[in-house]
Design a protein that fits this description.
Blueprint: E1 2-3, E2 7-13, H1 28-37, E3 42-44, E4 50-52, E5 55-60, E6 66-71, H2 92-103, E7 119-124, E8 127-131, H3 150-153, E9 176-183, E10 189-196, E11 209-215, H4 218-226, E12 232-233, E13 251-255, E14 259-265, H5 276-284, H6 288-294, E15 300-302, H7 325-334, E16 347-348, E17 351-352, E18 354-360, H8 363-377, E19 382-388, H9 394-400, E20 407-413, H10 421-424, H11 442-451, H12 457-474, E21 477-483, E22 485-489, E23 517-518
Helix pairs in contact: 5-7, 11-12
Length: 523
């Protein structure tokens, strides 16, 4: 049976920036650590189902507009002697403060879109209400963010919020609490150590100490794992899995995250791409299985739809544009896109099928782009690849928000109860939305509006199936693949079973059940 004790050390590539649940969404390291240190009203279990965390119980009004939450009493904030904190209690005031901070545009939280127009009211210290203007079936999924301690953060001015020390010495109410941080001579963070929160309101964790070590590259992480200097790797690239000694003898979790990579077309920027026959040919011109084999080292599955197979409403009967280069060529021939000047690029009325494909400068996406470039060249299409750094906000600020691209290759992530509205509704074509194809179909708009207000799952699922049929027929994007998220750790770590997660940090939901040592029971 499990016993208390042990130390788990996980290696990560990169650096923490904001161990703060309302700023952590753009950095996996921040999100990982925040998920362990902070508590939320609801969380996902190992099957991807929403369960109570800080919540004792909740009720939903008949009109689905008012959500009343009752939180657990006696939940204590992490006690930090250096802060003079005497085990203050978490109350509704902390929840309201956190939500108001998310809603305030001055704090630049990526969670803000989920809370626009939602009113929060305090009933008492342990009861809070959320009042929606319109029914929104997936609303409960918005309640998985970590809660901040008002008594600490409210003392910090808005402009100092991202600079506050609590971003690196966090105070939460989760199963583990911050203990110490180590830096090198250049000021880079080498490691962060967490210890058991003895005041945790749920099961006391078994593992005594968690240490997260930060590396400059994946090769160094793998080397440390092979030397048994660390117990786990937060993410292993598929093409590096052969570098892990005894890979098959380690615990390999192939996590199925509800995300897909796709190429989104901005038809307003390129006349050739506004021709549906061209987009049809481009769809038939991509060998997705080859991409998965060569780029993902077979660690992934093809994507053909905006709602992945494991999610509510996935339509298994939608039209699939299989790889068929001769058919792609014939399609272009029939549409009178012909290479008349012999330069290898098809044209029609002095318009050539050539465009720039913007991609984030990540190895797997670069290889994906280059392979697709070769495939499309064979059918008479010229593509220039434009790599954009992900270490700054350039991709978002210079390309995505102003829609300054002809085509772009990026990922989109959904919840297990999906709401494709932000990705495909015409109201989301503006820079604040995520409709990257600037897709506009009144029938689809109506379906998405109705679906997000439909509380019956079966009815909502049928609407999503119809939505997929219409979208796939219009071909505003080409769905490529959904990669496995490889999480690796040694055999000494037990009870780490999880099947469905939304984001990588969800693997730590239930970390209090992990253990490293066993205790023999004598009969």
């Amino acid at each position: 049976m499990p016993n208390f004790g042990g130390e788990y050390i996980e290696g990560m590539v990169g650096q923490p920036r904001f161990i703060n649940p309302i700023l952590a969404q753009t950095n996996d390291i921040d999100s990982d650590l925040s998920s362990i240190i902070y508590s939320s009203l609801l969380k996902l279990d190992s099957e991807g189902e929403l369960v109570n965390d800080l919540t004792e119980s909740y009720e939903i009004s008949e009109d689905n507009l008012t959500y009343t939450f009752h939180i657990k009493k006696g939940v204590k904030w992490h006690s930090k002697k250096d802060l003079g904190d005497n085990k203050k209690e978490l109350t509704v005031d902390d929840i309201i403060y956190t939500i108001q901070t998310i809603q305030n545009p001055e704090f630049n939280s990526s969670l803000r879109a989920n809370w626009t127009g939602i009113r929060t009211e305090k009933i008492d210290d342990y009861t809070v209400q959320f009042i929606l203007k319109n029914s929104y079936a997936p609303f409960l999924n918005n309640l998985t963010f970590g809660i901040l301690p008002k008594h600490l953060w409210s003392l910090i001015k808005t402009n100092n919020f991202p600079l506050a020390e609590y971003n690196f010495r966090p105070v939460g109410s989760g199963p583990y609490m911050f203990k110490q941080l180590s830096k090198d001579k250049e000021g880079k963070i080498i490691s962060i150590e967490l210890e058991i929160n003895n005041d945790y309101y749920s099961q006391k964790p078994f593992i005594k100490k968690l240490v997260f070590q930060f590396f400059q590259n994946e090769e160094d992480v793998i080397l440390a794992f092979n030397r048994k200097e660390i117990n786990g790797i937060n993410y292993l690239s598929p093409d590096n899995k052969e570098m892990v000694i005894n890979f098959e003898n380690s615990n390999i979790h192939r996590l199925k995250i509800p995300r897909y990579f796709a190429i989104f077309f901005n038809q307003t920027k390129n006349k050739a791409l506004s021709d549906k026959e061209v987009r049809l040919a481009l769809s038939h011109g991509i060998d997705k299985n080859r991409l998965i084999q060569e780029v993902l080292n077979s660690e992934g599955s093809p994507s053909d739809s905006p709602i992945p197979a494991q999610l509510l409403g996935h339509n298994p009967n939608i039209k699939i544009y299989d790889y068929a280069q001769e058919h792609a060529k014939n399609t272009l021939d029939s549409a009178e896109w012909i290479d008349t000047d012999g330069d290898g690029i098809r044209e029609k009325e002095d318009v050539k099928i050539e465009f720039t494909l913007v991609i984030p400068n990540q190895k797997e996406l670069r290889e994906t782009g280059e392979l697709i470039q070769q495939m499309w060249k064979e059918i008479g299409v010229a593509v220039e690849i434009k790599e954009v750094s992900t270490e700054t906000n350039e991709l978002s600020d210079s390309y995505i928000k102003p829609r300054e691209y002809e085509a772009i290759l990026v990922a989109q992530i959904l919840n297990y109860d999906p709401d494709p509205f932000a990705f495909w509704h015409s109201s989301q074509k503006k820079e604040t939305g995520l409709n990257l194809s600037l897709y506009d179909n009144p029938e689809v708009d109506k379906i998405l509006e109705e679906a997000r207000q439909e509380s019956n799952n079966e009815t909502r699922a049928e609407k999503y199936k119809k939505f997929q049929e219409l979208l796939i027929k219009d071909i505003p994007a080409i769905f490529l693949y959904s990669p496995n998220y490889l999480y690796v750790h040694g055999k000494s770590i037990r009870e780490t079973d999880f099947n469905n997660i939304v984001i990588p940090s969800d693997r730590f939901n239930g970390i209090e059940n992990w253990y490293m040592k066993t205790k023999r029971i004598w009969k």
